[in-house]
Specification:
With 195 residues, this protein is of the alpha+beta class. It is built from six helices and eight strands. Strand 7 and strand 8 form a beta hairpin.
């Protein structure tokens, strides 16, 4: 069974996610320079993982120190946008990367279903040397079993068509149209009704 991550796991989570997404079409679009991709992914995933800690509506799981899942519960509410007081945190990324993140966020938000409460799988990543060992399926089960027990659906966007067979085996189906990034890859929304 996966374990809940703690603050002490943030570096491990960032390393697993950076390695797992190193050749992903989406992250190659976000960070087109291969020389800075790993450090950018570690910073980005480390910051995202931090937002999953200390809240009852987010789950950050680690399995065998090789696979990570990040879920938002149906009750999750994003924090309010910071007011225009000029005190915004400075981004660690150059302007072109910030712009791609902005575009990605807007397109994902526009495609995200808001008509039914659901669990949202934001990230799943496995170390490349551990692919094909069933870690992804095992990591997903913890929350998908909860979805089934509670009668709640789940949603995700696949950033790599290669991974869609894993999701289909877990009960996900295509949902809506693809999310097409300008001059970049597509994301594939998928929905799973509870079993």
């Amino acid at each position: 069974m996966p374990r809940l991550a703690t603050d002490a796991d943030l570096d491990l989570v960032a390393r697993i996610c950076a390695a797992g997404f190193a050749a992903d079409p989406l992250t190659s679009w976000l960070f087109p320079d291969p020389a800075t991709r790993d450090s950018g992914l570690r910073i980005g995933f480390g910051g995202l993982a931090r937002s999953y800690l200390g809240t009852e509506t987010s789950i950050l799981h680690i399995l065998d120190d090789a696979c990570v899942t990040m879920w938002r519960s149906p009750d999750h509410q994003p924090p309010p946008e910071e007011g225009g007081d000029g005190a915004e945190d400075e981004s660690p990324f150059p302007a072109d990367v910030q712009e791609r993140f902005r575009i990605l966020g807007e397109l994902m938000e526009a495609a995200h279903p808001h008509d039914r409460p659901h669990w949202y799988l934001n990230v799943i990543s496995t170390l490349p040397e551990r692919h094909g060992q069933g870690l992804g399926a095992r990591a997903l089960r913890a929350v998908l079993d909860r979805c089934d027990a509670d009668g709640v659906p789940a949603y995700l966007e696949s950033s790599n068509p290669r991974n869609m067979s894993l999701y289909r085996r877990q009960g996900f189906d295509d949902h809506g149209t693809t999310i097409d990034l300008p001059d970049g890859p597509s994301l594939y929304p998928m929905w799973r009704d509870p079993r």
